[in-house]
Amino acid sequence: xxxxxxxxxxxxxxxxxxxxxxxxxxxxxxxxxxxxxxxxxxxxxxxxxxxxxxxxxxxxxxxxxxxxxxxxxxxxxxxxxxxxxxxxxxxxxxxxxxxxxxxxxxxxxxxxxxxxxxxxxxxxxxxxxxxxxxxxxxxxxxxxxxxxxxxxxxxxxxxxxxxxxxxxxxxxxxxxxxxxxxxxxxxxxxxxxxxxxxxxxxxxxxxxxxxxxxxxxxxxxxxxxxxxxxxxxxxxxxxxxxxxxxxxxxxxxxxxxxxxxxxxxxxxxxxxxxxxxxxxxxxxxxxxxxxxxxxxxxxxxxxxxxxxxx
Amino acid sequence: xxxxxxxxxxxxxxxxxxxxxxxxxxxxxxxxxxxxxxxxxxxxxxxxxxxxxxxxxxxxxxxxxxxxxxxxxxxxxxxxxxxxxxxxxxxxxxxxxxxxxxxxxxxxxxxxxxxxxxxxxxxxxxxxxxxxxxxxxxxxxxxxxxxxxxxxxxxxxxxxxxxxxxxxxxxxxxxxxxxxxxxxxxxxxxxxxxxxxxxxxxxxxxxxxxxxxxxxxxxxxxxxxxxxxxxxxxxxxxxxxxxxxxxxxxxxxxxxxxxxxxxxxxxxxx
Lengths: 310, 270
Ligand SMILES: Cc1cc2nc3c(=O)[nH]c(=O)nc-3n(C[C@H](O)[C@H](O)[C@H](O)COP(=O)(O)OP(=O)(O)OC[C@H]3O[C@@H](n4cnc5c(N)ncnc54)[C@H](O)[C@@H]3O)c2cc1C
Ligand SMILES: Cc1cc2nc3c(=O)[nH]c(=O)nc-3n(C[C@H](O)[C@H](O)[C@H](O)COP(=O)(O)O)c2cc1C
Ligand code: FES
Fold this sequence. Notes:
heterodimer; A: 310 residues; alpha/beta; TIM Barrel; eight-stranded parallel beta barrel; four-stranded antiparallel β-sheet; 10 helices; 16 strands; globular; B: 270 residues; Elongation Factor Tu (Ef-tu), domain 3; Rossmann fold; seven-stranded mixed β-sheet; six-stranded antiparallel β-barrel; 17 strands; 23% helix; 34% strand; binds flavin-adenine dinucleotide; binds flavin mononucleotide; binds FE2/S2 (inorganic) cluster
């Protein structure tokens, strides 16, 4: 099953004017800091990749420990480490002519920063779209944005005004009504949404009586949050007509089908790579083909949104 | 007890040995580390300070890490005493592949710590072992008796120091090159660990002399489990695909020994 081309007709996704050969996209912040590894992820079968979230200036992120495996999921407080936009664009230069769209994840502490990012990235044709991260739960100044519909609408509007590319807004589950925030993003001009970023969480080492993370709070990812993510995707697609990238705890082809049935256009994979390595892409693609063939579906388009039937 | 290597264990230091003014060895008991392979590393939580990658310098009922004092975290670690606690997770990484036969081991500075369990193991396999050790001066030498025990009588230990205070005066890569030219040995493999510039030179020598290499590399690590991307060199994650790499992989790392990346991913010349 190394033949990705033969299954493409069943699995391809067309959205945002882009063509993804399959619905498996690398999630933001997973390996996406350097070009050669992103290339390797694509060669491993990913239908698209989202980069690490990048800001205008370099950031070291939070001190270690930054990632802890709790068994049912990962807790991380990376703190958005990144080399800054200018340096990162040089890094991405080498990624032309690949078979999968490259989505640049960005964050900004103010709308002025967004204006500048929009201007710089508009002419940068290595990236096909931008994912706006307003939802990192462990960075002050970012985590607050996703909770405030007025800010979300205004941020998205500002970015859209200065950026000549599709904008995906990455939403946080750490809100009381995610549909309200999704609406605000769409009102601001978002072309698509990603749901969800990590769930704000904490764990304590009882042997030493201290938080396990140096940053105290972190974001929970992995299988523990999958039902939360599925619920968010379902709620959003139930009330809004906008493409949604489902993300959170996906480990198997059945998990992908679940997200598609909840209404996701495509999905993003993150934590699973810690345990499954880069082989997960081909493993899941094979599982998707088998699922569709066994049940007589001719493509993933036939399962998308099924759970919304009444 | 869980067998998930990613779960952090809090362990008590049973012994702390000063190897020299800059290097200490810390002994502890941990069932998962006892099953590690030579060349694997652990993430050590210096509680309240930092979490850093360290190679296992002994693998047995008791395990150890051997640490050079180079900055905040390692200085804090050097202040720890027996009965103090550290957190450990791992062992991580691929480790060395044992090759039976005639082998060279080229170590620079505290890079020797990574190679010690390998040397122990190679002895058990009856290999012919030639060890090349590089230090700044005679004051920086550590664990020499252990290395000598392992190679005797089937091998040799050669030392280089920058100041010539013991052994060959110059870099260990120069010592290795001199030896290659003089005795044209046919090693089945060359194992190496040390500063990046040294590894690059040893790699170039192995390419020129058509020798197989297994090089243990370092990079800035955060997760240690292959997802954060901070330790990537070329298309490889040092924590997961490495830290031990062979020549075909090293060929895909043009930056090797030229620059490294900081915690923000910015390139730093070395
Ligand atoms: C796989 C591996 C095995 C290692 N084994 C040993 C060993 O057995 N003995 C030993 O003395 N050292 C070893 N090191 C190096 C050791 O991790 C660093 O010396 C240590 O992290 C320095 O921390 P610091 O705060 O004291 O120094 P700093 O002042 O923070 O930095 C000094 C140097 O250490 C590097 N460093 C700092 N933090 C990290 C980190 N999280 N990951 C990687 N590098 C870092 C910096 O890039 C810099 O080059 C190993 C590194 C790796 C990647
Ligand atoms: C180590 C790590 C780093 C992450 N970094 C980012 C980031 O930079 N930007 C972002 O939008 N999301 C980031 N995320 C969140 C993921 O993109 C994803 O939304 C989340 O992990 C849920 O998916 P998963 O369960 O498949 O991991 C990160 C997650 C992890 C585990
Ligand atoms: S340290 Fe995170 S990928 Fe290697």
